Amino acid sequence: MRVRGSWVAAAAIVAACVVWIGSGLIGGDRRPPAAPAKAERAVRVGVIESRARPVTARLDLTGTTRANRAVELRAETRGRVAEVMAEKGTAIARGAPVARLAADDRAARLARAEALFAQRDIEFQAASRLADKDYASRVRVATTRAEREAAAAELAAARLDIARTGIAAPFAGVIDARPVEIGTLVAVDDAVATLVELDPIKIEVEVSESAIGGVRVGTAAEVRLPGIGSGAGVVTYVGRVAAPATRTFPVEIEVPNPDRRIAAGMTAEVALPLGETLAHPVSPAVLTLSAAGELGVKAVTPGGLVEFHKAVPVREDAEGLWLGGLPETLRLITVGQDFVSAGQPVEAAPDTLLAPSPEPASR
């Protein structure tokens, strides 16, 4: 009976150990349970309530002035320059003489051609009268007629050669270059002078494919030239073939230049109105880029989430940059837009520094 009691005591001890080990008291993990994660705090951003307003869209471009017409006056006959009537840089009228070549033996050749023609004409008249009386053949009449026509052609060529010794301006303009002097020997097609027409003057600009549809011939343009001032012009040409490298279209603006103060080759700033549209006036500092690299702004939805809006610059003036392509009203993020992403919850607070006036200026 004593042996049985010992087995019972041993079994009780083993059971107690099992319970103890199972409870984690030996080698167990005594770390307290993890505290629940705190909710992430929303980023605070500054916003303004922006409403679109009607504004005249404007395309601001930079171009280059060029002469309305430019021509290189070339010699049409050979000879020595005998007289120069127009100095480089001087303005001349249409038809005004620029230079004259020496006549040399042209007068003698003209006299010879005149005498030969007179002779051939007499021979033809005589042959015709004899043929009428059957004293000369029709072949003789045809021969003398051909000889007279040949003499007439020589006479006309002699007169034209003399006329070509004088070089005149085909239109009113300014002599921009004159590579010859008195005594210079020129051949046919040698340059004698360069004549440019500066009134009116043209301004060449390049317009992107996204804006070319709004440009029309006859559109009024605002022009500003450094050192000269502002003026008005009109679109006279809109290209319809884009440059392969830039995908831009050439546009020409014509500007009056009666005093010729505007020279060819100057830089010009051009503003082309493209019609009225709705746009938001903003500070350029609020602009941001989307993940795809698109230019736009960020706003806050009624649910407190950030949303990105692609925007199109319409014009820039004293009120700032005007952006089109946006909703008519939006809560525009003006502070912190670079630190939040589309779809992110934010806490919006009014940005009083950039808030628009309650009575915006009418346009």
Structural notes for this entry:
This protein is α+β, with helices and mostly antiparallel strands and 363 residues long. Helix content is 20%, strand content 41%. Helix 2 runs antiparallel to helix 3. The longest helix has 27 residues, at 106-132.
List the topology elements.
Blueprint: H1 2-22, E1 43-51, E2 53-74, E3 79-84, E4 91-92, E5 97-101, H2 106-132, H3 138-163, E6 166-168, E7 173-177, E8 185-186, E9 191-208, E10 220-225, E11 229-238, E12 248-255, E13 267-282, E14 288-289, E15 295-300, E16 306-310, E17 312-317, E18 320-324, E19 329-335, E20 346-350
Parallel strand pairs: 1-20
Antiparallel strand pairs: 1-19, 2-9, 2-13, 3-5, 3-8, 4-7, 5-6, 7-9, 9-12, 10-11, 10-13, 11-12, 13-18, 14-15, 15-16, 15-19, 17-18
Helix pairs in contact: 2-3
Family: Belongs to the membrane fusion protein (MFP) (TC 8.A.1) family.
InterPro entries: Beta-barrel_RND_2 (IPR058792), RND_pump_MFP (IPR006143)
Organism: uncultured Alphaproteobacteria bacterium
